[in-house]
Design goal:
Blueprint lengths: L1 H100 L2 H14 L7 E5 L7 H8 L3 E5 L8 E5 L4 E4 L2 H15 L6
Parallel strand pairs: 1-2
Antiparallel strand pairs: 1-3, 3-4
Helix pairs in contact: 2-3
């Protein structure tokens, strides 16, 4: 029986050693599985974070593009509306100037401007006026006070005159068109209708 006990003892020892090795292998496999799982989880988190970051950047980029497009469209509408207002203002101003040229004050205005233009000391002076103002040619010559030739010009549609010195091509522009055009720049700078 001793032999049988020895055999059983050896068998128990072998089983015990084998079980220890199986447990060690299982522990090693479990450790490797845990490490692999943790590594996969970390990699998945990195991928998810990267994808989230990319999607957020894409959303931000699309939102910025939409905001920019909306801003551009709004600016275009504001510019169109501003230009419409400016056109209305200057149309009304032009109508008032046309009415002014039909008034009694216009002739006095024209003669006063002619008298002031004489300060330029032009030698060969030519005064261009609109055809309707040729009726004032003698009075304009008298107001100018120097030798001047008065001629009709198709360039002048509202009123006033252009005084040219033919000797050296100097010009004094006293037309209502020129005055109105200069007011557009002043109006643009001072009206408060600037769009930023």
């Amino acid at each position: 029986m001793q032999e049988k006990d020895v055999f059983l003892s050896m068998k128990a020892e072998i089983e015990h050693t084998a079980q220890k090795q199986v447990d060690a292998i299982n522990a090693e496999v479990k450790k490797m599985e845990d490490e692999a799982l943790q590594s996969m989880q970390e990699e998945a988190k990195k991928d998810a974070d990267l994808k989230l970051k990319q999607e957020l950047e894409e959303i931000h980029s699309e939102a910025s593009a939409e905001i920019s497009e909306t801003h551009t469209q709004r600016t275009k509408k504001l510019i169109a509306k501003r230009d419409e207002y400016v056109a209305e203002v200057f149309k009304a101003a032009r109508e008032k100037l046309v009415a002014f040229t039909k008034s009694a004050e216009y002739k006095d205005y024209l003669l006063k401007k002619a008298k002031g233009a004489a300060d330029n000391d032009f030698v060969d002076a030519v005064m261009l006026v609109r055809a309707e103002d040729m009726q004032y040619s003698e009075e304009l010559k008298k107001a100018y006070g120097k030798t001047v030739e008065v001629k009709a010009s198709d360039e002048i549609t509202l009123g006033g005159f252009i005084l040219e010195n033919t000797a050296d091509a100097l010009v004094v522009n006293e037309t209502l068109e020129f005055a109105l055009e200069n007011q557009k720049t002043w109006f643009a700078n001072n009206s408060g209708l600037m769009i930023k």
